[in-house]
Amino acid sequence: MSKPVDLVQGTLDLLLLKILALQPLHGWAISLRLRSLSSDVLQVSEGSLYPALHKLEQEGWIKAEWKQTENNRRAKFYSLTRLGRKELESETANWRRLSSAISHVVALSEA
Amino acid sequence: MEHWWFQVPLRLKSVFRRRRAEGELDEELQFHLEHKIEEGIAEGLSPEEARYRALRAMGGLDQRKEEMRDMRGIRWLTDFVFDIRYAVRSLRRTPGLVAVVVITIALGIGMTATPFSMLDALVFRPYPVPHPREVVTLVSTSHDDAFGQFSYREYLDIRDHTKSYTGVLANASLEPVGFSAQPGATPIVRGGMMVSGNYFRVLGVEPQLGRGFRDDEDQVPGRDAVVVLAPEFWKRELSADPSVVGRTVRLNGKDFTVIGVAPESFPGMFVFAHPDFYVPLAMASVFSTNPLRSFFVDRDARELVVRARLKPGTTLRKARNELGVLAKAFERDYPRLNRDRGAAVRTQFEMRTQDNDINWKFGVIFTVLALALLLVACTNAAGLLLSRARTRTREIAIRLAIGAGRFRLIRLLLTESLILALLGGAGGVVVGYVGISLLRRFTIPTELPIEVPFRMDLRVLLASLALSVLSALFCGLAPALQSTRMDLVNGLKSAEGEELRRGRKRLWGRNALVVAQVAMSLMLLAASFLMYRGFQNSVAKYTGFHKDHLLMVRVDPRLVQYDAAKTQRFYELLTERARETPGVESAALTQNPPLGLDNSGDVAFVPEGFQMPRDRESFKAPIDTVDEGFFPTMGIAIVHGRGFRAADTAETPRVAVVNEHFAKHYWPNAEAVGKRFRLENATGTPVEIVGVAQTIKYEDSPVDRGIDFVYLPLRQHPVARMVLLLRSRDDPVQLVQPVKSIVGSLDPNMPLLETRTYEDLFRYATVDGPRVAVELVGTLGAVGLLLAIAGLYGLVAYNVSRRTREIGIRMAIGARPADVLRLMMGRGLVLVAIGTGIGLAMGFALERLMNSMLFNAGGVDLTVYLVIVPMMVLVTALAAYVPARRAARIPPTVALRYE
């Protein structure tokens, strides 16, 4: 496994919101999804995943519910709230601005 | 913060349903781990390896949980709940110490609550009206009086020519009024007050029954005979009869219609007096106190308190400017009556902290003293907590070693002291309640409706609570800081090893505590002695007159509608018949006997031949109006000239008797007898001084100073309301019945207002009143001393226990018990000495303050300190000696093994 890229500060929130925007998931599924979606490039320490989820919950961006999984176990499923959707939009816009600015700068330096 | 509605339930959930929240935390992480392990096994790892890998990936389950708890943002709250549980548990382990600390703080807070309730009632409690802060008092100012009143004409001008107020009201002073519920019944005396028609409207007071006055009801003199009853009076005298509105009652012999009853929430605007009923100003002819002046006409008949409600948004400064301009206009338009007279707008606070009012000053002094006592109590409690913290050194060291933050530990220790202080505060409320009921026991002997306003109300409770929290901080912080600032290794090994190394530095705080206690209690004791002596002096100095074998009876012919001539005739017959009564040695009339509760007013005068200061037109002095029998009956010596004679009548030149203080004041180098002064101003009626009387104490006030005083003869200065003084051969009480029958034979409707022996009055004014003050301060001092003794004893005992092993070593290598005793006591005595020094300095400072505020005695009263200082030293030395002696008696073998 090549050295995983460190997450830019604050982008974990964005990733989590985005993943949960697609469908409600429990913690384990989120960690799997993170790995597969970013093709193993972005590796989130499983340790920091849960505190991050709790923070989002406290902010009111996501909400949690205990539900049965497909193989009949109880798990805590997180889903996006209305506030979370708004937050996701503004965070996404921010990210776009930031990344395009950075790629711009990177492109300049090569020319 | 827009999403608080998400957070609040979540946070509450994690506080109140902690166990469940924690369970969910566990379950969630467990779920993750299991999947991770399954994944590992699927990849071909052994179950143990898979488990290990999963845990490592998580990076420590408990750390994660902590992080997640932190994320909830209510960390402080859950911690607080924990702290309380922990504190209660740990406090229960040392019940004795807890009891002592709680009692100490309870005494401190209770002792503060009592004088604070006094101060609150006298100064801070707002007027019982809506928006009390808007209500200001307008005063007329002059050289002699910064809180003067206005005349009716002046009130009308102010009301009509100011724009800063939503309304300007006026009221006269509370007056005794003859009241009969049915016409024809013998009147009883009750307190009535004349008010302007807008009184209730401007104050925002809605009657609970009927209506208030209409603005036009004070327009036409004598037209609207209507009365509004006060709630207490209505309940007491009319059994809360709701049909009272519309009924006719008789006031001072005139029929009035009851139009309303004021609400329960409005007992009146005064601190002490609660009016029984209100009548319109326009009825002044029925109630006016001063028959010589015409209430509605004379611009200088200044008998009205004028208050106003500021318009919202109008500043005090603006109102002051406006009134100042108006006062200038008065001075310009009426130069004779308003010369050097200004006007000012005063807030409630300013009105209640007048310089010549002694009550609130006592309140301040008591509160300051009590706070000093609370400080002593807190330092004591802090000392006890400190010794408690010491026994927990090891526990605290362990907590620090396993990673507890220092701040977190300090918070835990503070929570403990907060619990102690709140328990103490609850006990303090009980102590304060008892103290306040003792204060309330004190009654003022008068027929006017006067209530002692001190009570344990919400405001006092809140103040006590605030004090508890403050004292928790104060007495908990030092021990908490000190015990968490430690060297871990030594703390874990042994408390003693650590202490011996840093002992000196460490003990500095405790030494300071003891010094502070000794100093404070010395100051308090000195203060109580000083007050006691101050009162004693002021009583002893100016009371050289008869107090025994005197009966006094107050009558007021105005209550039965006598005119001036009829009044004069009545008094002539009364004294004549009284003198003929068997058992009566002499009889006299006085407007107000010395130390009496009435105010007989002032006289404005200009002494002839005296260079008046450029900026003033006249001086003022209090007066008494007396008849020719007064000086012999009261036993007041005439030192020069003569007293009054029956021949001093309205037809002969006007005469006066002044006191020695007056004579020395204006004619320091000459004989005052034969000199003259003029009434009101330099062109007023001349009055010849025919005699000089000894200076006595005139007012019911503990202020120790002689004042100027003038006596005027009744025949030349008729007054309606007088006191008949009878000097008896035997017990004066035996004369009560004869006096009743004499008055009854002159007029069966004439009420006797105040019938008592003069000794009763004198005792009230000089003993009962000041005794409350002295008892209060004395109690403070005594409790302070108790606390100081306990504190010193505790310190020395603490030192002994801390150094027991050291004592053992010393004795093992040859120290004698006397050496140990000296070693242990020495420190205590040094502290007592330092404390005494500071206490003396503070005592002197306090004495200066009390002298300037109360007694005007000047100079330092050394005898007080000659009594107190040796006593303090003795008692505190004893407190140090007892535990020190115990140390000296410990066998070395025991001491060496001591841990």
Describe the model:
The complex is a heterodimer of chains A (111) and B (899). Chain A has helices spanning 11-22, 27-37, 46-59, 82-110, and strands spanning 25-26, 62-68, 74-80. Chain A has 111 residues and is α+β, with helices and mostly antiparallel strands. In chain A, strand 2 (62-68) and strand 3 (74-80) form a beta hairpin. Chain B starts with a helix and ends with a helix. In chain B, strands 3-4-9-6-8-7 form a six-stranded mixed beta barrel. A six-stranded mixed barrel of chain B has the order 14-15-20-17-19-18. Chain B is α+β, with helices and mostly antiparallel strands. Residues 494-501 of chain B have low confidence and may be disordered. Chain B contains 27 helices and 22 strands. Chains A and B meet through helix 2, helix 3 and strand 3 of A and helix 1, helix 2 and helix 4 of B.
Name the strands of the widest sheet of chain B in spatial order.
3-4-9-6-8-7
Structural class call of chain B reads alpha+beta
Please tally the β strands of chain A and state the result. 3
Strand content of chain B: 5-15%
Counting DSSP E segments of at least 2 residues, the number of strands of chain B comes to 22
N- to C-terminal distance of chain B: 56 Å
Form type of chain B? globular
The overall pLDDT average of chain A reads: 79
Strand portion of chain A: 5-15%
List the helices and strands and how they pair.
The complex is a heterodimer of chains A (111) and B (899).
Chain A: H1 11-22, E1 25-26, H2 27-37, H3 46-59, E2 62-68, E3 74-80, H4 82-110
Antiparallel strand pairs in A: 1-3, 2-3
Chain B: H1 4-16, H2 18-42, H3 47-58, H4 61-71, H5 75-92, H6 95-124, E1 135-141, H7 152-161, E2 165-171, E3 175-180, E4 188-195, H8 199-203, E5 209-210, E6 226-229, H9 231-238, E7 248-251, E8 254-261, E9 277-280, H10 284-287, E10 305-310, H11 316-333, E11 342-346, H12 348-352, H13 358-391, H14 393-401, H15 406-440, H16 458-484, H17 488-493, H18 495-541, E12 550-555, H19 564-580, E13 584-590, E14 602-607, E15 619-626, H20 630-634, E16 638-641, E17 655-659, H21 660-666, E18 676-679, E19 686-693, E20 710-713, E21 722-728, H22 736-746, E22 754-757, H23 758-802, H24 804-812, H25 817-855, H26 862-888, H27 892-897
Parallel strand pairs in B: 4-9, 6-8, 15-20, 17-19
Antiparallel strand pairs in B: 1-10, 1-11, 2-10, 3-4, 3-7, 5-8, 6-9, 7-8, 12-21, 12-22, 13-21, 14-15, 14-18, 16-19, 17-20, 18-19
